[in-house]
Amino acid sequence: MEAFFRGYAYDPHRHDTYAFGLTLSGVQSFDYRGARRDSLGGHAIVLHPDEVHNGRSGIESGFSYRMLYVEPRLIRQAVGEGGRALPFISTAVSQEPRLVAAIARALRDLDQPLDLLAVDDLLERLAQALLALDPSAARARPLRLENRALERARDYLDAHTAETVDSSRLEAMTGLDRFTLARQFRAAFGTSPYNYLVMRRLDRARRMLAEDTPLADLAFACGFADQSHFTRQFRRAYGVTPGRWRALQQQIRG
């Protein structure tokens, strides 16, 4: 959800989920675990299941924020063997860069449906960011890579860049559950399966930009939901829009 409030926001209540939030502007104030918490623009918020909290603006001009609700079982699955308990952050408000980045990433495309691989990627990032802030929940054990399984997963992604890749397909092919696969894939190849797939789609798109293919058709051919989805992903990766990239390439070719 995304919302704006000025003054009073909501009464004390609780969720049966994790609530991951990002304050976008103003001061977001609430009472949590016996103390007042104040979250400023750019701060992350983590509210744990069954913890009572309320909400109000800390300044007269109000505050805006985004919030994502995640079932605890999904965090537990994403933590996997690396954790022996659900991670807990008692402060609720954090400026820790890894956590802020994970939450911001999860919240940045609220208006778009997420690929299944994207969901797994976001959950794994959130879980690992939580574990990093709660060492008591972590279980220290070395990461043993299943290299053959990881190569099979990478080869499959290379061969199916234009398709919607279901996590269950990768699980069946590798024998690894989706979150173990995400952790091991990042350790082996430096990125998640979802990001790897997106970059392969963008590689194909860059080659096609040298042609006169309309951008909407190009986006569909490369596996993106639509042209706007393609444009956002391209700009995040290369810092310019596809149209600008195509114009620059045409200038270079003279």
How would you characterize the overall build of this protein?
There is one protein chain. By secondary structure, the protein is of the alpha+beta class. It has helices at 72-79, 97-107, 116-133, 147-159, 167-174, 178-189, 193-209, 215-221, 227-238, 242-253; strands at 2-5, 8-13, 18-32, 35-40, 44-47, 53-57, 63-70, 93-94. Strands 1, 2, 3, 4, 5, 6, 7 and 8 form an 8-stranded antiparallel β-sheet that branches. The longest helix has 18 residues, at 116-133. It is flat, with a radius of gyration of 21 Å. The model has no long low-confidence stretch (mean pLDDT 89).
What structural keywords apply?
10 helices
The portion of residues forming beta strands comes to 15-25%
Gap from first CA to last CA:
48 Å
Low-confidence stretches: none
The dominant shape is flat
Q: So how many helices? A: 10
| Gyration radius over CA | 21 Å
Biggest sheet features: 8 strands, antiparallel
The tally of beta strands, per DSSP, is: 8
Q: Structural class, from helix and strand content? A: alpha+beta
The overall pLDDT, averaged over residues, is: 89
Helix and strand element order: EEEEEEEHEHHHHHHHHH
Give the fraction of residues assigned to helices: 40-55%
